[in-house]
Write a structure and sequence with these properties.
Layout: H1 7-14, E1 27-30, E2 35-37, E3 42-48, E4 56-57, E5 60-61, E6 69-75, E7 79-86, E8 91-98, E9 112-122, E10 127-130, E11 140-144, E12 149-156, E13 159-163, E14 169-173, E15 177-179, E16 190-197, E17 201-208, E18 214-218, E19 222-227, E20 236-241, E21 250-254, E22 259-265, E23 280-285, H2 302-319, E24 323-326, H3 336-345, E25 350-357, E26 371-375, H4 381-395, E27 399-404, H5 408-411, E28 417-424, H6 428-434, H7 437-455
Parallel strand pairs: 2-8, 23-24, 23-25, 25-28, 26-27
Antiparallel strand pairs: 1-3, 3-6, 4-5, 4-7, 7-8, 9-12, 9-15, 10-11, 12-13, 13-14, 16-17, 17-22, 18-19, 19-20, 21-22, 26-28
């Protein structure tokens, strides 16, 4: 399994309750019980102990951080693996079973081409049109609204292959499609074009006889392709929207009267001495409520650290003149789509989601440390890069870079949006910094400076 720096996966692996121990025992936060099945070639023991203790696991010395936190990687053989944890005063026994799972070769679906095309219609809003027939990775071409018709020429597993024009094809999950009782796709007409702008955005309107599929992508501005329309080569209308300077958010949608609207936000007038003044910035403290996130070696919940850093960042942003929108301000659960909706409803100009990281068992040996940022749209890459560089420079966290990833909170926002993994909560050194109020202040300050660098 490849490395997976996802807080959601980390939460599933590490959102646990520490195993009960005696007063003289080391506190083991992970594995979650003394008898557990872990089907991986390796795992780790994560927990805490007094720094002056001589802690051993199966006779191997365990390094204890000055904070008391530790993590220790162990190899797993097939069958039962016995581990004796000894701190000089008390011993604990852990039995970890690694099953010898026989790999069954799953029959792969084969592509089936249709003799006659099938006409389908999207049955929901925000339907992903994909470049590949799978539901992971960076393969989303566009999100389509309900009631858009397309021609299907084949299928692969649970995906329809749709033909958008003579040479353009895409994939759509069968779950989001209703079959229509016809084999003929009606070609639509572009009736009118319109353009207007205000102080914050430019608006392009295309009036059509009915809704049709389209794609909008970034390329030194925006490239719009509208499919299934008459009077254009291969029934495809193409339009480039030029943009001078940085893209600062955009959205596209259909109105009830079949107008395709493209809204392109203008980059705000920035005073370089006070670049944050007047900006609307959404801060999203990851997890919350029953969703703990990852749990650190000192038994801290990721959700609480995320919130503390987010609150500190909010105060600093407001001190510098920004208008801050919080997706949560207490220990409450907020769904992923709700977080995005809060930002979009309040017309946020920048979105920052605060998280902390962990690792699955299969890559325990990496013993990762440091900060990384994630973005989905290219317009957010520079922001992600500026923030992670500032974090590394000002906090001492290792710079793990800015990376493209299809996370819901950065994929569906209408503005530059990033997810920040500040540090690895399961790493004792990172964990100690993440719960330290002074370091939380440094972290917030660094993110603020990264924002300022991006805006300048």
């Amino acid at each position: 399994m490849k490395r997976m720096n996802l807080s959601l996966i980390s939460a599933l692996l590490l959102a646990i309750v520490a195993v009960p121990t005696t007063a003289n025992s080391a506190e083991i936060v992970y594995p979650k019980s003394n008898n557990v099945v872990i089907n991986s070639p390796e795992t780790f023991f994560i927990g805490n102990e007094k720094p002056d203790k001589a802690l051993k696991i199966n006779g191997e010395n365990v390094s204890i951080h000055s904070s008391g936190g530790f993590w220790h990687v162990v190899k797993l053989d097939y069958g039962e693996n016995k581990f004796v944890i000894d701190n000089g005063n008390d011993t604990q026994i852990y039995n970890i079973t690694r099953n010898n799972i026989k790999t069954t070769i799953k029959e792969e679906p084969t592509y089936q081409s249709y003799e006659k095309p099938l006409i389908i219609e999207t049955n929901a809003d925000n339907v992903p049109l994909r470049s590949m027939p799978n539901d992971f990775g960076l393969n989303r071409l566009q999100h389509l609204q309900k009631d858009i018709q397309m021609k299907v020429v084949g299928e692969f597993g649970n995906y329809y292959k749709v033909q958008l024009s003579r040479d353009d094809f895409a994939w759509l999950s069968k779950d989001y499609a209703n079959k229509l009782d016809t084999n003929d796709l009606n070609i639509q007409r572009i009736i009118a074009f319109d353009y207007h702008e205000d102080s914050t955005k430019r608006i392009y309107e295309i009036k059509l006889s009915d809704k049709v599929p389209y794609t909008l992508s970034e390329s030194d501005g925006l490239d719009l392709v509208v499919y299934n329309v008459k009077d254009y080569p291969y029934n495809k209308y193409e339009f480039h929207i030029a943009n001078s300077g940085k893209l600062f958010g955009y959205k596209s949608y259909y109105t009830d009267d079949n107008k395709l609207i493209i809204e392109v936000k203008k980059f705000p007038d920035i005073n370089k001495s006070t670049p944050l003044k007047g900006l609307k910035i959404a801060i999203d403290a990851g997890h919350g409520g029953t969703e703990l996130g990852a749990i650190g070696c000192l038994k801290d919940n990721e959700k609480d650290i995320n919130l503390e850093i987010s609150k500190t960042l909010k105060e600093k942003l407001e001190t510098n003149g920004a208008n801050v929108i919080m997706t949560r301000e207490d220990d409450s659960f907020v769904g992923l789509n709700d977080r995005v909706e809060i930002a979009n409803r309040n017309n946020a100009q920048i979105f920052i989601s605060i998280h902390n990281n962990a690792l699955p068992d299969s890559v325990a040996h990496l013993k990762s440390t440091g900060s990384e940022t994630y973005y989905f749209y290219p317009q957010s890459k520079e922001l992600a890069k500026d923030v992670v560089e500032s974090l590394a420079k000002e906090t001492g966290f290792k710079n793990n870079g800015a990376k493209a990833q299809s996370f819901a909170v950065v994929r569906n926002t209408n503005c530059p949006a990033i997810l920040v993994e500040v540090g690895y909560i399961i790493n004792p050194e990172d964990n100690a910094k993440l719960i330290d109020k002074n370091y939380q202040n440094k972290i917030a300050e660094a993110i603020l400076h990264g924002l300022e660098n991006y805006l300048k």
